[in-house]
Design brief:
The structure is a homodimer of 230-residue chains. Chain A is an all-alpha fold. The first copy, chain A, is 82% helix and 0% strand. Chain A has 8 helices and no strands. In chain A, helix 3 crosses helix 4. The longest helix of chain A is centred in the N-terminal third of the chain and has 47 residues.
């Protein structure tokens, strides 16, 4: 990507910020909704805290390890596709050249206008393969070292997020814990949504409203279902 | 993308399949781990089923609604960036032309070799904007109608996946439910991982092993934590 000044303006947050947002988004929402839901059926804060901590363990491992393995298999998928493109550029250059021309025909360029580019790529098989990976398949080389850092960030953010709604159940009695947890978590969701909006370039206030609505709806649904069973 | 025969070989499953995989992956894992975890602390299957159903409600809403809003804000982000590129192509064509040349310099093309392409794009401002969106920013036009279908598929798959580990707790007594749930769910995770591997082009057996390990680790961690508290 060219390092021109205006590229900076398209910046929408680093990969680490994105991972933290992914983890915290679910970490704030699901343990919160589970704890609030169980409060509709059970008066015992020990059970609610146990369920909440079990959920945090399960959710952070599922998201973190799942993300790690997904990143690893993305990297393998990329290398498998790259080998395939290398073979095609080597063995069927005519067909690949037609595909390059085809890509540019999609942007209104005639075969004649695309010819110099096709010829230039033909002279550079490596660059040609890179070009096909990005422009035909839409794949970018993943960074293999990111997988572990990404998994740790997602899981860590999930755990941090999950302890916010559980805190009141650990510190307060059954009657006070639910309203305290709802209040604290809705505020946390609003702040998180606002900051997330700032990073992703969305309107912060609308983003805050959306995270509050998702968390609130999830908690209300869980509460309703638990209440209906008990 | 060109409709040549070999594109077919790069196919890795439709968007609906991907959404179903996302939802079922977490739906099988988290309610399973939560129920198994609570079994380490509580003998009462009613409490476990209540917690499991509350988790399914919370998780499916958080994932489905979260996915819906993320798709919507992706679409808004795309349109905002497209307006910006349109303005740049209109107001600073010289700078944008330099950026196109810069993109191709990344593939080893000289400024002279890139010139015909730059000139061809200059004549077609709309195609030029499309080109910058895809090749400079790596953004593809999202389908706004996908958002709702995607949310419903993710949430539905989460619910279907979540009922598999909960089934034994609903049908059996406390002593039989845990081993039955573990057995059924590990088999379901293996089948799911195998099918997922087929769709994503990974080795099916390895994919099956991975989903079983994630689910098993999440359940073991949740069980250990719940046991330690009780």
């Amino acid at each position: 990507m060219p390092q021109t000044p205006h590229v900076e303006r398209h910046f929408t947050g680093s990969a680490t910020v994105r991972d933290a947002v992914i983890g915290m988004s679910d970490g704030l929402t699901v343990p919160f909704a589970l704890a609030a839901g169980l409060s509709g059926a059970i008066d015992n804060t020990t059970v609610i805290v146990t369920a909440g901590l079990a959920e945090i363990a399960a959710g952070s491992i599922a998201m973190g390890l799942g993300g790690y393995l997904a990143a690893r298999s993305d990297a393998e998928h990329f290398h498998a596709e790259r080998s395939r493109e290398e073979a095609e550029v080597r063995e069927k250059p005519e067909m690949e050249a037609l595909e390059v021309a085809e890509i540019f025909r999609g942007y209104g360029l005639s075969a004649e206008e695309a010819t110099p580019l096709v010829e230039a790529l033909r002279k550079r098989p490596d660059a040609w393969v890179d070009f096909m990976m990005r422009f035909e398949l839409g794949l970018e080389a993943p960074d293999p070292r990111r997988a572990l850092a990404s998994a740790a960030t997602i899981a860590g953010a999930y755990i941090v997020g999950g302890f916010i709604p559980l805190g009141p159940y650990m510190a307060l009695g059954a009657r006070m814990a639910l309203p305290a947890s709802v209040g604290i978590t809705l505020v946390a969701l609003a702040i998180f949504g606002y900051v997330k909006g700032k990073f992703t370039g969305a309107q912060p206030v609308r983003s805050a409203l959306q995270t509050v609505v998702i968390g609130g709806l999830a908690a209300a649904a869980a509460f309703g279902i638990a209440k209906a069973i008990s």
